[in-house]
Design brief:
With 124 residues, this protein is mostly beta strands. It is built from one helix and eleven strands; from the N terminus they run βββαββββββββ. The N and C termini lie far apart (40 Å).
Length: 124
């Protein structure tokens, strides 16, 4: 059973930065695709970023809405996934979730394990 625990959310003004963390079970980061998703009130869950496992060279992919502002990375030694968010905008306000899945990509339904979420609020 893969367990994921997010942290690092909070309130920030537009233009500011936050770094989200997702602590994962041992060896999860190497052998799973890890993704970040978000869900704003009244909206559907949205893909944010993904980082592939060791077999795919750890390649990263981003939603167009965050490309150039967000960076996904992982520290295998710490079993931790990160999402560095810069130049935040009010429309980035949402609950952010990390997820793990084998062979997953941008579709949240392809992920098997989810964290509890962390709130990010960006004020104008």
């Amino acid at each position: 059973q893969v367990q994921l625990v997010e942290s690092g959310g909070g309130a920030v003004q537009a233009g500011g930065s936050l770094r989200l963390s997702c602590a994962a079970s041992e060896r999860t980061l190497n052998f799973y695709v890890m993704g970040w998703f978000r869900q704003a009130p009244g909206k559907e869950r949205e893909f944010v970023a993904t980082i592939k496992g060791i077999w795919s060279g750890g390649r990263t992919f981003y939603a167009d809405s965050v490309k150039g502002r967000f960076t996904v990375s992982k520290d295998n030694a710490k079993n931790t996934l990160y999402l560095q968010m810069s130049n935040l905008k009010p429309e980035d306000t949402a609950v952010y979730y990390c997820a793990a899945g084998r062979g997953a990509d941008r579709d949240g339904d392809e992920y098997d394990y989810w964290g509890q979420g962390t709130q990010v609020t960006v004020s104008s």
